[in-house]
Design a protein that fits this description.
transmembrane; about 190 residues; Arp2/3 complex 21 kDa subunit ARPC3; transport; mainly alpha
Length: about 190
């Protein structure tokens, strides 16, 4: 198993991606009556995993969750506070953490290729988040699992587009600025270039 030491600037990378997740939530959330608001925050979660990897991407999401818990208005519509964790959308919010981790694990499991990054963004950003979100949405919202899953169908097209955007942005960033990525990813790039 290769070591993945954190560099001093990793804290800055993690903070930047936590801020990105917050900003993507504040940019024009689309309210859906009775449902989870449509935001671009899952794009930030996908990018955190594809760029930073599982440890750093998970840390970025964890920072956002802590900011929510202490009451900062960092979610769609300026929401924040412990009350968010009692609402029916909490599962999707909590699902961001395993989503970023799985995304990072898949994306950084080998050479950073378009198909691996896309697979990572799709799997980590959709089924993993949904696997946590749907059951809690059903339980807290008083729906059956089938009803909650049916509500989620409305998010599939947007989340698929976010996965494509995350893939393109990750690969462009990798070409333009490799220092944004963990040392192991940069080292793999150097080995294939040699």
């Amino acid at each position: 198993m290769t070591r993945d030491p954190w560099e001093a600037r990793d804290l800055a990378r993690v903070a930047v991606f936590a801020a990105l997740i917050v900003v993507l939530g504040l940019m024009g959330p689309v309210p859906v009556p009775g449902l989870v608001p449509i935001t671009a925050q899952t794009l930030g979660v996908m990018l955190a995993g594809t760029v930073l990897g599982w440890k750093r991407g998970g840390a970025a999401v964890l920072i956002v969750l802590v900011l929510v818990a202490i009451g900062l208005p960092v979610l769609a519509g300026g929401r924040g506070g412990l009350g968010v964790f009692a609402g029916p959308t909490v599962g999707y919010l909590i699902g961001w953490l395993p989503g970023a981790i799985v995304t990072g694990l898949i994306a950084h499991s080998g050479r950073l290729t378009w198909w691996r990054v896309l697979l990572a963004a799709v799997v980590g950003g959709m089924p993993v988040v949904y696997a946590v979100g749907i059951p809690l949405y059903a339980a807290i919202g008083g729906f059956s699992l089938e009803q909650a899953a049916l509500f989620t169908v409305a998010f599939l097209p947007g989340d698929a587009i976010k996965a494509l955007v995350a893939t393109v942005l990750t690969l462009l960033l990798f070409r333009a600025y490799p220092p944004a990525f963990p040392p192991a990813v940069r080292a793999a790039r150097a080995r294939t270039a040699a």
